[in-house]
Amino acid sequence: MMTGVLPAGPVRAVIIDLDGTMVDTAGDFHAAINAMLGALGAAPDMPAEEVVSYVGKGSENLVRRALDVRLPPAQANSRFAEGLELYQRAYIAINGQHVNVYDGVREGLAALRDMGIALACVTNKPRDFTQPLLAQLGLNTYFDLVYPGDAFQYRKPDPYPMLRVAEAFGVDPVEIVAIGDSENDARAARAAGMRVLAVPYGYNHGQPIQGAGADAIVDTLFAAAELIRPYAEPHNAVSAASTDDPCS
């Protein structure tokens, strides 16, 4: 079931979020955060629902939020660097062990590729987590460009990485559709002048996606592709534009 309408106009590129949009990574986040808390002596384990409510603004924010609710303020601040290192070490060790690709993702990516649309993945997930996960799941081959959360000084909800995609592809932002599961995705895309589709099954900091400001909400990535199809315009020049990008 779809709600809302995708504004008409040519679509030459699509930007897709990772966590909560293409892949359910809640299990990895949950395991890594609790490994960190255990190493810091901040047991008991944090419930999965609570961990997921902190997801979406990068590893630093996730660790900060977890420490803030488990340690006194002074300790949360003084042990943040240690906690972040423990979390990153734990996450790298289990990356991809507790994840699932959402229904319709592979079909949606394949459909968009068949339309000749340029594809980029923009995520707040760090590079060391992003690239191995995409490769492990066989999703990396669909994308012309991948910008992880540490590719630039700014990340979503800042529009900077979205605008860098437009620049790399040589596409006007109004010809790009962004697809995500959270307000961060919608805010970044809106500020960049792009159209926005949202999926309802992701995280969005525990808030209903209906308030995120997307043009339309679609049940699956394949449904998003079918909504885009009438406006699709092949962009065959993308390979040359993105190949030399140091962050691709």
TrEMBL record:
Pathway connected to this protein: Organic acid metabolism; glycolate biosynthesis; glycolate from 2-phosphoglycolate: step 1/1
Reactions that this protein is recorded to catalyse: 2-phosphoglycolate + H2O = glycolate + phosphate
Residues that coordinate or bind Mg(2+): D17, D19, D181
Gene Ontology CC annotation, any one: cytosol
Statement: the UniProt record of this protein carries the keyword Nuclease: no
Recorded superkingdom: Bacteria
Entry annotation: catalytic residues: D17 (nucleophile)
Enzyme class: hydrolase
EC number: 3.1.3.18
GO molecular function: metal ion binding; phosphoglycolate phosphatase activity
A family per Pfam: HAD_2
Cofactor(s), by name: Mg(2+)
Protein's GO biological process: DNA repair; glycolate biosynthetic process; reductive pentose-phosphate cycle
InterPro entries: HAD-like_hydrolase_sf (IPR050155), HAD-like_sf (IPR036412), HAD-SF_hydro_IA (IPR006439), HAD_2 (IPR041492), HAD_sf (IPR023214), PGP-like_dom2 (IPR023198), PGPase_prok (IPR037512)
Key words, A-Z: Calvin cycle, Carbohydrate metabolism, Hydrolase, Magnesium, Metal-binding
SUPFAM superfamilies (UniProt xref): HAD-like
Quaternary assembly: Homotrimer.
Family per similarity comment: Belongs to the HAD-like hydrolase superfamily. CbbY/CbbZ/Gph/YieH family.
Function recorded in the entry: Specifically catalyzes the dephosphorylation of 2-phosphoglycolate. Is involved in the dissimilation of the intracellular 2-phosphoglycolate formed during the DNA repair of 3'-phosphoglycolate ends, a major class of DNA lesions induced by oxidative stress.
Protein name: Phosphoglycolate phosphatase
Annotated organism of origin: Ralstonia pickettii OR214
Lineage: Bacteria, Pseudomonadati, Pseudomonadota, Betaproteobacteria, Burkholderiales
